Amino acid sequence: MNFIKEMYQKYKEIILYLIFGALTTLVNMVSFALLNEVCHLDWAASNVIAWILSVVFAYVTNRKYIFESNSTHIGKEIFLFFFFRVLSLGLDMLFMWLFIEMIGMHDLVSKLIVQVIVVVLNYVFSKLFVFAKK
């Protein structure tokens, strides 16, 4: 049992990021599927709305649970968080376009593949630039 506690403490940030990253991906995927498949919005509009919902969820969970930020510069933190998420949205949209429009992959399969790439990039951005310990 001590081994599990030690491993959790050692890798707590990564474990929590994976858990909340999975939940963020779930928010993104479910939102995208509902908007695209049920509401019949096109994939681009569905993707942007799903992105907004998931980024708000991600900011709250990243700040509170993963990086445990106590920064008093919340405005700067939110700006940086959204700035880097916009960068990853650009990559998200580019890869979605490539997979759907150029390769002909199914929308939801494309979305799942792209989310894996985006989750890794977002961790790096958050760790190094947004919630970096000074």
Observed structural traits:
134 residues; 5 helices; globular
Describe the structure.
This protein has 134 residues and is mostly helical. It has five helices and no strands. The longest helix has 30 residues.
Secondary-structure map:
Elements: H1 2-10, H2 12-38, H3 43-66, H4 74-103, H5 107-130
Helix pairs in contact: 2-3, 2-5, 3-4, 4-5
Which radius of gyration do the C-alpha atoms yield? Answer: 16 Å
Count of alpha and pi helical runs = 5
Largest sheet: none
Mean pLDDT: 92
Query: How many angstroms does the end-to-end distance come to?
Result: 33 Å
Strand content: under 5%
Uncertain stretches of 5 or more adjacent residues: none
**What is the string of SSEs from the N terminus onward?**
HHHHH
Return the structural class: mainly alpha
Write down how many β-strands occur, each being a DSSP E stretch of 2 or more residues: 0
State the helicity in percent bands: over 70%
Which shape, going by the Cα principal axes? Answer: globular
